[in-house]
Write a structure and sequence with these properties.
Chain lengths: 281, 281
């Protein structure tokens, strides 16, 4: 999927919502625990209930690896289920990998060939070698960590400043923005730093940004939209726990749908305000 | 395993060799391709042929994830095989993970509870949150990337300098060295930067260092020993392809043993030179 196709999906659904499938086995409703594969069954019902409101889904690999082989199986089934039933959805492996050439090749194969992911999140610490092998796959994306939403992001991302007073995350953007076109390169920028999105946009005006941190982590969707939106939207805003664990009862899927609808409705308003839906009128 | 126990193993085996199990399925000898699980069979024979010469083994997760569920199964079997047969070996998951609190918890569970790894390699980009959950596991280690051996390590690790002219990798050491004791915290420092090991030792004189980059990547073991060794050795030097793919014929395991013996013999000499074997005399 390229940037234009992603923007078309956003306009069609009036949504730039990414739903994070942080499907922690211990938080899945008890009535699903009797299923053969509770995590997959949970994901499947969440996706069926919300796919019309979201443009992207993002399983976080840790929650699958924690269950070993069984978890890896749930991940593969989830990815296949999404692409078989809703091929228009943008599928992100939130893996935060980062290794050198021949090893990155292997990760790219795991996510882009063996599984039908469109994108993988990557740590920039080891430099371009980390990113390059992912770019060899047509229409696939590298999503590079820039400014994350966790409290200790300050340790290096903001505390490490160069002689020009640029913070590390800014240096990451300056250095990496020409490594690939905006059809293959995206950045992670946390919503809890919404006031900094304006600074991000000064460096990468045209790139898509994957924005975690609204919902359970407390970021404001409005601030993200005001400071981060560009003429092709340029945002995928993620919510995980706030949607998928809205209820842990029999109604978990319909409650997830209700929560996703609230977010999507707010998003539709911002897309309208920014005049991005005009050609859909 | 704590630092003292690791040093005791080093003295006992006169070796600080870590063998990297970068067991790329496409490079495994053809006669093993008929086994039920060729990667596990390969690893098993490599380990049986070399375990007396190495103190550590380090599967790189990418090579297992590239094979999906089957690969994850090979990884679990390899880890179990090592700890069942050679519990004294130090087992490193070369995963280069790096995510925030609740997610890192999941990764720690995957490697330390579901599998018997002693250590996991981690990227420092997201700060202390990334490392902390791993430290809650007694006698388990976080191995933090500092200065890696790949060519694009310059992009950020050395090119990003602060007002005091400290490079990013130095700032990582300064900031993180007190996050945990030297019984739980280790650093990755590439052998291809052996002349910088002296600078590393100025900041972290007592920490163990995991040093990749000798062998196929061209680093010098002698330079590493001269510049990096401390009074408890403080080094685990990794070789992957140079040992495990020394031959791709029927003799692959015995050839791996020969290569490992060459490295171990050289290591024994340095340990002797530095007077670290005296209490074994």
């Amino acid at each position: 999927m390229n940037k234009e196709q992603l923007f078309n999906q956003i306009k069609l659904k009036k949504s730039f919502l990414c739903i994070g499938l942080d499907s922690d086995n211990s938080k899945i409703p008890s009535h699903l625990q009797y299923a053969n594969d509770p995590v997959f069954e949970f994901n499947k019902q969440i996706i069926e209930a919300t796919h019309h409101l979201a443009v992207a889904y993002k399983p976080n690999l840790a929650f699958y690896e924690a269950n070993g082989i069984k978890g890896w199986n749930s991940l593969e089934r989830t990815a296949q289920f999404i692409k078989s039933n809703y091929p228009e959805l943008f599928l992100i492996a939130d893996a935060k990998r980062g290794d050198i050439g021949n090893t990155s090749d292997m990760y790219a194969r795991a996510f882009f060939q063996n599984m039908p992911f469109d994108a993988v999140t990557l740590s920039p610490y080891m430099g371009f070698d980390t990113i390059q092998p992912f770019l060899h796959h047509k229409d696939k994306w590298a999503i590079v960590l820039a400014l994350t939403s966790n409290s200790s992001a300050v340790d290096f991302q903001t505390n490490c400043k160069n002689q020009s007073n640029d913070m590390l995350w800014q240096q990451v953007l300056f250095t990496s923005k020409d490594w690939a076109s905006t059809d293959q390169l995206m950045y992670v920028v946390g919503a809890t730093k919404a006031e900094w999105l304006r600074k991000v946009r000064e460096i990468v005006p045209d790139h898509f940004l994957l924005v975690p941190g609204i919902g359970a982590q407390g970021g404001s969707l409005k601030e993200v939209a005001i400071n981060g939106m560009n003429k092709q939207c340029g945002l995928l805003v993620n919510s995980s726990r706030g949607i998928i664990f809205a209820s842990n009862g029999l109604d978990f899927a319909s409650k997830a749908c209700e929560e996703a609808l609230l977010v999507q409705t707010e998003m539709a308003g911002y897309l309208e305000d920014f005049g991005l839906l005009s050609d859909q009128a």
